[in-house]
């Protein structure tokens, strides 16, 4: 029997000003792609082999086992069903895994990409097939217990022995033990080990090495290898993040991944075109995290928006029926800016991936000139998108009141599985400082008359003249982009001036950098926010957009920019670029935009096209039948298997009886 849709949600859908399908097509790159997405999702979601008890009801060990089994099934089925393109695999795996990963995820996301990106053709012949077939399962072992951020400071050593033409691998101190690599704890039999290369006593920096850590026969750690799971974490329960220490483990010379740098049999070292090419896998994943953050935020906003239309609470007017909580403007102010941000990062994520694809193809042809821009852009956008997604997902949870705290909402798991994106692949302040470093260099080049290109082109010849007194239309996307550009350019310029002044005051470069670092991260943030606002606005100039959806998407873009502007109003006011009256106007526009977006809110989240199986949230159900399913879900909780829990007999009964006896 098909359940009836909640009448409030039904009405919301009937009253929308546009057909969500049109936005879905825009978001996923066309009708054909949406069709394929739905086919693959339905294949995965209706496959009985993937069904299991709710992970939230399981111990961590059970979760690991369940997700490993599912991951294995998934890669086997994808092979059988010939689901091969990256896009198809993403559609299928998102439906199988929901908001979780599986213990071999780092194999797919980092181990394989490192082989593609860092191995020679000969090495690919040797390893790729094995890795693609899952004959070997690997992870990316870089971080150590003592150092994650400071990659140059890693202590794991790979010392070349020309006599045997082998590398001797060691983690010489406690702090050198590898710590965190996903899937290393129990699953992987191989790692790409990032280690300091030593030849004849001289250090050549960090390089990648293929290392077998477990037997292919019985999965036991190989001699010299100590490996295990690092224990429970904030989330990511299904993942066996691991530790690893190495004691004089020898590997053949051919196991150093030598696409860019080489060690010859006699120990001669051949330098790479850039030492930073060894960091390529991190850049790829950072670029992917922008979209990943947009999607996670979109899921959270979908859940909270639908639920806010189903949930009725309090009285807005005495004696009137309880309103849908989304009718409270404060609730709209909680959710709509993040709805807009989800769209912003979704679209920017697509742009970031296309910049990545173009740049990496140039790099593989030997043109490394694009590397600094790619690094700076992906670092800043990764940091901004993941931190904004964190804040937004939490705001969505809070917007669901008490039920948001329950795992039934899907929000706690979504959050704890997504939040590593802020720390992993480069902690967000650290990455912002990388972007700032590029901004400082670029800005100084522009001061010397160089013309800049790419994301920093606006720093060339920027006019920092405040334009107070001018009347502005604060809804005009061009004017909003100008405001964000001006703010970024000013803050970049001021951070550069501060850095200079610290140095003129006697500090060396490093101390001056540290003293200026709050302003530097602010500069990187302003630059990244400008890029997002500009990208969002540019995507709306797509001639394929029909007017009904262009109107609503423009409102979202305006809201995204205006909300950023109002929450950072000091930045825009500081040099008089905007006036108090502009900010007041912006606030009024936000209220008006929210009122206009209110009737379209459900259609806008429906357009993300997450089926219930992927949202995995009772509060976010498409049909809105929340309460009945909350109750059913709670009844399935292991604590409810019996009316009287065994602990009653063990502890509670004697305690009650003892108390009664004392009366
Ligand atoms: C295939 C995947 C596709 C999509 C994936 C999609 C979604 C992913 C979904 C979820 C992911 C979420 C969570 C992930 C969960 C698990 C996996 C996690 C894995 C990991 O965490 S792996 C470990 C990651 N570790 C780090 O990121 C360490 C961070 N530190 C660094 O990167 C660097 O050391 C640092 C801090 C950037 C630089 O330090 P330092 O200042 O000491 O610099 P250097 O001396 O080393 O460099 C000087 C020079 O080089 C420039 N530079 C630095 N890095 C790069 C680079 N990567 N590329 C280019 N250039 C670089 C630097 O700016 C300096 O330049 P300059 O001298 O100024 O010109
Ligand atoms: C869920 C998860 C999965 C992971 N998976 C992997 C994996 O598969 N493989 C792997 O190798 N690693 C993995 N990691 C490790 C991850 O990459 C690192 O934790 C991350 O890069 C941050 O480094 P850190 O832990 O050393 O943080 P730290 O650098 O110790 O950060 C601590 C604080 O110091 C500050 N700080 C550090 N350096 C600077 C600086 N230069 N300037 C200003 N402030 C600074 C930071 O901002 C932060 O506030 C994973 C981590 C997590 C949480």
Automatic annotation (TrEMBL):
Q: For this UniProt entry, which residues form the secretion signal?
A: none
> According to its UniProt record, which reaction does this protein catalyse?
glutaryl-CoA + O2 = (2E)-glutaconyl-CoA + H2O2; decanoyl-CoA + O2 = (2E)-decenoyl-CoA + H2O2; (5Z,8Z,11Z,14Z,17Z)-eicosapentaenoyl-CoA + O2 = (2E,5Z,8Z,11Z,14Z,17Z)-eicosahexaenoyl-CoA + H2O2; dodecanoyl-CoA + O2 = (2E)-dodecenoyl-CoA + H2O2
Pathway given in the UniProt record: Lipid metabolism; peroxisomal fatty acid beta-oxidation
Q: Where in the cell is it found?
A: Peroxisome
The UniProt family comment states:
Belongs to the acyl-CoA oxidase family.
Which cofactors are named for this entry? FAD
- Record carries keyword Phosphoprotein: yes
Q: Where is the active site?
A: 425
A molecular-function term among this protein's GO annotations:
FAD binding
Keyword annotations for this protein?
Answer: FAD, Fatty acid metabolism, Flavoprotein, Lipid metabolism, Oxidoreductase, Peroxisome, Phosphoprotein
Q: What is the lineage of its organism?
A: Eukaryota, Metazoa, Chordata, Cephalochordata, Leptocardii
One BP annotation, GO:
very long-chain fatty acid metabolic process
Domain of life, source organism = Eukaryota
Question: What residues bind FAD, as annotated?
Answer: 143, 182
The Acyl-CoA oxidase C-alpha1 domain is annotated at 279-440
One GO cellular-component annotation of the UniProt record comes to: peroxisome
> InterPro entries in the record, alphabetically?
ACOX_C_alpha1, Acyl-CoA_ox_N, Acyl-CoA_Oxase/DH_mid-dom_sf, Acyl-CoA_oxidase, Acyl-CoA_oxidase_C, AcylCo_DH-like_C, AcylCoA_DH/ox_N_sf, AcylCoA_DH/oxidase_NM_dom_sf
What is the protein's name according to its record? Acyl-coenzyme A oxidase
Task: Give start and end of each Acyl-CoA oxidase C-terminal domain.
Answer: 478-656
Keyword Transcription annotated: no
Where is it mostly found?
A: other
- Stretches assigned to the Acyl-coenzyme A oxidase N-terminal domain: 19-137
